[in-house]
User: What shape does this take?
Amino acid sequence: MRMKWGIAVAALVMTAGLLAQHATAQTENNGSASTGTSTNAPQSKTDQDTRPHIRFDDFLNEAIRFNLDLAAQRANIAITHAGITTASQRPDWSADFGFPVVDLSGQGNPITFSIGLDAPIELGGKQGRRIRAAKADLGIANSDYDDAVRHLRATATGAFIDALSARAILASKQKSIGELERIVSVNDERHRVGDIGEIELVQSRVERDQFRADVISAEADVVTADLAMGQQLGKQERVAEKLPVPDGTLDIPVRTFDVAQLVATALERRPDVVSKQKALKAAESRIELANVNLIPDVTVSGSYSHLAAGTGGFVQPADNTLAASLSVNLPFSRWKNRGELEGARATRTQAEIQLKATQLQAETEVRSAYAQYGASVKRLQVYRDGLLKDADRVLEARLYAYQRGGATLLEVIDAQRTSADIYLSYAQALADHARALVTLEQTADIWDVAF
Assistant: This one.
């Protein structure tokens, strides 16, 4: 009789504990999936308490400001801007000096010297065309930088999402192992009083230890995700003593979009499309420059010469002479072999093709991202509409039946495992939804993401 009372008490304790643990797990799992913060890992929590926390907006601003790849891209703008200065330069003038001619024979040959100045003049507005082409190149560099920002913004946001997701997954696995710890504890008592055999106790321990291994892997995944996030900030300290902890939530609202409007926005605003449009204009500027380079240039020359008075057999008065001349270069080779012009025209044809290809790529990416986002919303809704509740009902029913001898330990463990898998998949669905939103807004070049 005493054994039966012990069995009954153990069963009631186990069931009550599991129900309480499961209810707490469900509430905390929803919270952890939303905040991405682990609450049941003392080592991780202690480490995170000593590390700086960072909000998404601050993280993104810091990444754009200090990211090393983006800094290298900014250097291209400075390099291209220097090209405008180079293009504005005019041809250099040249000076000629005729050193005095001295009569070494002593026959009275007069001493002479001269000085001249040559000033080349470009015709056809070559300088203006060069400046216009250089400014077009600067516009391309600016658009390429904007496109690099667009890609970095998406990459950095993905790293932030991964860090939040890793914490949500860790929290889900920690809650599962908490439930299994309760099962093992109660089964220890039930085995002690003889209600169950040793196999059932060992089975519960095996299940618990398996989840412990998963938790260890999940903890390592958190560290890896944090390091990947810190790397985006471009500073060594951000992957060491000042490795940040992300503050945010993956439980963001579902959005609705008009795919036609997204496509129109992308074709109008996406920096890679704008860059190709500017490249086409730059190619046209190069054609204009190649045409004016076929126009001959002139050189205006002036000179002054002095002839001293001669003596002996070279008797003559002193003479001072000013002279001027105009020379024209004749670019016969450029007229015959117009390689610069032909190259510029080929570049324009290439730019037209690249523009069409980029526009097609942009529209394809937007429509693909729109479809993926719609699928992520539907998948997320499956969990919110009933899957989570159904998993809870199954587990509660198994626990209730186990209390009354109507279910086995394996059935309880299987229900607990199914519930854990579903909540883990829900956390992953939240992350997938966030990633899909980021991809959609990146492809359409709109940005109002917040976590």
